[in-house]
Amino acid sequence: MNNTIFYFFYSFAHQSSLLDNVIVFFANYLPYIVILGSILFLFSHYRVFESPISTETLLLRCREVSLVFLSPILAWVVAYLLKILIHVQRPFLALSGVQSLFPETGYSFPSGHATFFSALAISIFFSSSSAKATGGHSKKMGYVLFVCALLIGVARISAGVHFPIDILGGYVLGILVAFLAKTI
To answer: pTM for this one?
Structure first.
């Protein structure tokens, strides 16, 4: 089933230059946009740029923003360690006839991208602010980020650098780490 789903998404690659560029954009460049957007959202959400603001309040709010990124970073480290232990080859190495759209090294399970971005989505979804007038914006942003995580994951499968199980394992790991970090 893993290979069947892989080949379904991989069938979109190498069909046209435009589609290949879209896949590469979602797989390689969207992650940077998501991180930058998340930082800007959190700075706004925690009112870091509010004026006037005391140095103590500014440092506290920057600390809160940093804590939101702690679980995605921790999740990525756990994913990296699991890759070292599990040793699953990437599809373009494991399956004949599969050519990735971009070079990728290392083992594939679990996907570090899927792990990081699912943990980021959950962290922002559950982020709280000292400001009471947030209106549920962190939950809405969490949903947006999870959609972005799904797009990144599907693009990485389509690009031939991950199996679906790599992405699914990354999502599960990221969500678990984010929930554990939230409860601690």
So the answer is: 0.88
